[in-house]
Design brief:
With about 110 residues, the protein is mainly alpha-helical. Helix content is about 90%, strand content about 0%. The protein has one domain: YheA-like fold, CATH 1.20.1500. It starts with a helix and ends with a helix.
Length: about 110
């Protein structure tokens, strides 16, 4: 990749890192990582999801257990704030990706 392109990509990355959305995401991620109860709950959900694949006969019971744990997560303000911030970042990246795809599509077609 030539230096000019690398510099432009670095500029985009720096722009994103300096947005309030990204800063809020990092803050909420750090707060979430400090909440052992939420981290444990998320790990429990992941384990249950893996168990569905390993033990499909028990799928209904495992899905009920997952649903209960997800409800607890969804009622937590910090978890919701983290998810909202993550969504904002993902939307920003999706817009960027779409613009780049359109730009290159227009050039090559």
């Amino acid at each position: 990749m030539n230096k000019e392109i690398e510099n432009k990509v670095d500029n985009i990355i720096n722009y994103i890192k300096n947005t309030d959305s990204y800063k809020n995401y990092l803050k909420s991620k750090e707060l979430l990582n400090n909440r052992e109860d939420l981290k444990e709950l998320i790990q429990d959900i992941k384990k249950l999801q893996k168990n569905i694949i390993k033990n499909p006969k028990n799928k209904v019971n495992l899905q009920k257990e997952i649903a209960c744990k997800v409800k607890i997560l969804e009622n937590d303000f910090l978890y919701n704030e983290y998810n909202n911030n993550l969504s904002e970042i993902n939307n920003m990246l999706a817009i960027l990706e779409n613009k780049l795809n359109k730009y290159f599509e227009d050039i090559f077609n």
